[in-house]
Amino acid sequence: MKVPCCLFRNFSYVPPPPLVPVQLPSSGEAHLWYVVPDEVKDPSLLSQYMDILSPCEKENVLSFRGEGLKKAAVLARALVRTTIARYQINGHVNPGSLKFCKNKYGKPELHWEHDLGKPEHKVHFNLSHTSSLIACAIAVNSLIGIDVEDKQRKLKSNLVSFARRYFTPHEVKVLSSIQDPELQRQHFIKLWTLKESYVKALGRGFSAQPFKTFTIRIRESESGDICALNCLDNKAGITVECMDDPNRLSKNWEFATMELMGSHYAAVCMENSAAHQTDQGSYPMRLIVRKTIPFVKDELVS
Amino acid sequence: MASSALKASSSLCVRPSLSQPKISGLRSVSLPIVYPSLTSRCVLQICCAAKPETVDKVCKIVKKQLALPDDSSLTGESKFSALGADSLDTVEIVMGLEEEFGISVEEESAQAITTVQEAADMIEKLMEKKGA
User: Fold this and answer.
1) Most confident residue range from A159-173, A247-261, B44-58, B71-85
2) Alpha-carbon torsion (A69, A130, A143, A296), positive or negative
3) In this prediction, does ipTM exceed 0.90?
4) From which domain of life does this come (chain A) (predicted)?
């Protein structure tokens, strides 16, 4: 059952600054927008972000401990709202007027309340943040999931023990085969983001799809060696295989993995639309990456 | 004990004293002798909350994982996400708890734990099952 997060607007607010409009992603295309919290220092800008949040979102922001976490929480919601507002769906341009709800598993979704029926292009979004980077992925008529992670992230536990506990045998085998500890750690982080992006795209909660129930496979190189994620270009050859549901076709999902700012790994997982699949497999995902400071500037990255 | 045990929460059950004829509001509920000083307040009795020692151990593991200072105040209600934990942190915390308490947590539960209290309650339930 869809429940709107908040139904009432605060009528005593000042309209937010304009946003540069953008075309919606086409079929088979995803947009990635990211913001770097350290680059947002102006208190009046943060205040403008706070102003476009719903009362529920404001309350949630205040529940975080410490100014850093609060700021990240504001930026995350502001990023989602301003990003979606740019697409001017059904003429909506005010990021503060967007409504969100949760699907039956708790995944946040856009909520359209007008009785003209759902818009022709259903916008899907997903958010991910680390303390140093917040990213939002957008797709149309396709489920989408994103996860970002600091490249330097180190596990407190032993990598391979962790993998044995939570990953599938194939994934453990690939991970263990990497000799260099630093390359192994990087592969681990990329693999984690890929798995997270898939679960988030599915949107049914982590309990519905534990990490041990699906394998992320990387296409073998020509020599037959299993290629670690380090030596792969960003879009080729990543597939998911479900252990418990062989009927769930792996070609339904496209993955892309990349570095952002040289400091973060990001993984995006998107559902393939039927139009995008051929007998040879599907066309790789087109990904447009933009860095942004909402209301201030946008920069096309790739 | 009292401070962590007494809180209003949807997961608690209310046990009114059997000698009380009717409950006309929470204020009129009085519990058996165990909480004699609290009859004028809203009092609820916990059915199965974790021991304070368990909660303390969980707090210690969480602080370590999230690199929080030793003197930061964590309670049962502390939400991992509000402390800055992401899903990888949560899974590592659960792994740490498994090692500390010698239990095994199902993956479905591992990523669903959101607060210190939930973790502590789950640990004790699993330890009970193990001991049975």
Assistant:
1) A159-173
2) positive
3) no
4) Eukaryota
Contact B83 A165 (CB under 8 A): no
Torsion of CA B74, B78, B83, B85, to 10 degrees: 120
Q: Write out chain B residues lying below 8 Å of A63, CB-based.
A: 79, 82
Measured in whole angstroms, the distance separating CA A242 from the mean position of its chain's CA atoms is 21
Measured over the CA atoms of residue A282, residue A207, residue B86 and residue A24, the dihedral's sign is: positive
Beta bridge partners of A258: A266
Given its phi and psi angles, is residue A51 left (phi above 0), alpha (psi -120 to 50 degrees) or beta? alpha
Q: Which two tokens stand for residue A264?
A: 């973060």
The predicted pLDDT at position A168 comes to 94
Active site residues of B: 86
Closest CA to A207 of B6, B81, B108: B108
Q: How far is CA B10 from CA A205, B13, B44, in A?
A: 22, 8, 11
Instruction: Dig out the tokens for A290 from the structure.
Output: 């933009």
Q: Tell me if chain A has a CB within 8 Å of the CB of B111.
A: yes
What percent of chain A has pLDDT above 90?
52
Q: At residue A261, what are phi and psi to the nearest 5 degrees?
A: 60, 15
Is A206–B96 a contact, with Cβ atoms under 8 angstroms apart? no
Quick one: closest CA in B to A188, which residue? Answer: B88
Task: Tell me the two tokens of residue B90.
Answer: 């949560």
Assess B68–A contact: CB distance below 8 Å, yes or no. no
- pLDDT tens-place string over residues B44-98: 444 567 788 899 999 999 999 988 888 888 888 888 888 888 889 988 999 899 9
